[in-house]
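B., you asked whether I could sanity-check this one before it goes into the benchmark set. Here's the sequence:
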Amino acid sequence: MASVTRELDPAAAAAQLAEQPLPTWQGVNHLALVTPDMDATVRFYHGVLGMPLVATLMAGPQRHYFFKIDEANTVAFFERQGMETFRKPAGWPTRHPLQFDHLSFNLADRQALLDMQQRLRDAGTEVTEVIDHGMIKSIYFTDPTGIALEASYWEADATRLPLGNQETFLDPNPVAAVRELQEQGRLRRVPQTDLVDAPTGIS
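And here's what the prediction gave me:
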């Protein structure tokens, strides 16, 4: 994978980016997860969750399937047969190397959440009662390979509220970047990252 890099002072980069218009993001094109059993994955995401299977392709020797969440938004899976998996509840710590915790799918309102909860129960999928997180109400469940999943709706839609509002900015001791945004309306510095050539941090 070719890359183009240039050395920038993190503060200068932050100042330059603050003057540019924000990108017009339109959701998640695809979130790529991994499964050892694509057949079970199709049966769960298409059959139980009702996310239409919209694309199937081969990425080298691996199957790569896409399930529709919304217009132009999908969750996708690579199939790695024989891959070790593990199960953990959403939000719980683990001794495994981990960057991904759980995935929450958005629903329109409480009734849609209750309908999904019933759909999961009708399919024989264990699911929690509705959990009240204040700004979000959720249910939790697990896919056939142990991926922790959540379905949620916004009680107070954080994406439509101003920065620093009292309904969704609830950390009493936020990190420095949040304080910069609240006090100055922009970040003082941004990190620089590199492409990864091979996995690291795996024992």
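One thing to flag: The chain has four helices and eight strands. Otherwise nothing jumped out at me.
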